[in-house]
Write a structure and sequence with these properties.
By secondary structure, the protein is α+β, with helices and mostly antiparallel strands. The chain has one domain (22-136). Helix content is 29%, strand content 19%. It contains five helices and nine strands; from the N terminus they run H-H-H-E-E-E-E-E-E-E-E-H-H-E. It has helices at 9-12, 25-33, 37-44, 104-107, 115-131; strands at 45-47, 51-56, 69-74, 77-79, 81-82, 85-86, 89-90, 95-96, 137-138. The strands form four sheets. It has a three-stranded antiparallel beta sheet with strand order 2-3-9, with helices on one face. The chain has a two-stranded antiparallel sheet with strand order 1-4. A two-stranded antiparallel ribbon has the order 5-6. A hairpin with a 4-residue loop joins strand 7 (89-90) and strand 8 (95-96). Helix 2 packs across helix 3. The longest helix has 17 residues, at 115-131. The chain binds iron/sulfur cluster. Iron/sulfur cluster is lined by residues 15, 18-19, 79, 86, 88-89, 96, 98, 102-103, 106.
Length: 146
């Protein structure tokens, strides 16, 4: 999967809401900036809104019965924001200061991808986060089978 390359004004405005990292992003950004991961986390990263997703369980369903979605939430980390912009956004040049190692959600999405491509990329990011051993937290769901 290739990174997106659009640099239009609309895509740049995404830098007001910094994109989430997948696990490999943190060491890559730390190395790029020549700092420890601990310092990077402490000074430049923070908790994001996380990703909510649905899983459909079909085990034990009778014929004709529809699977009900169970909702889960995984935590994400994102660059901190200052004065309405990502901490890595250079407001003088209008460019990302960590472009070669920008977080997954920054490098894989832009304003012009189709809904299908968006979903493919969203799933890929989610898989990378879950594969790292991050435990998904179940959310209360009134439609969840008991
Ligand atoms: S890391 Fe770079 S691309 Fe991502 S929001 Fe910050 S400045 Fe923009």
């Amino acid at each position: 999967m290739e990174r997106t390359v659009c640099d239009c004004q609309k895509c740049r405005s995404f830098c007001r809401r910094p994109g989430y990292c997948v696990p490999d992003d943190v060491p890559a950004i730390a190395e790029y900036l020549g700092m420890s991961e601990a310092d990077l986390r402490k000074n430049y990263l923070t908790a994001g809104r996380g990703i909510t997703f649905a899983r459909y369980y079909t085990l034990g369903l009778r014929r004709g019965q529809q699977a009900e979605p169970a909702l889960y939430h995984v935590s994400t980390i994102v660059p901190k924001a200052y004065n309405g912009w990502c901490t890595f956004f250079d407001t003088r040049t209008g460019h990302c200061q960590i472009h070669p190692v920008a977080p997954f959600a920054c490098r894989m999405f832009d304003d012009h991808i189709s809904p299908e491509e968006f979903e493919t990329r969203r799933q890929a990011g989610l898989r990378l986060i879950l594969e790292d051993g991050t435990h998904a937290r179940p959310l209360p769901n009134p439609t969840m089978p008991t």
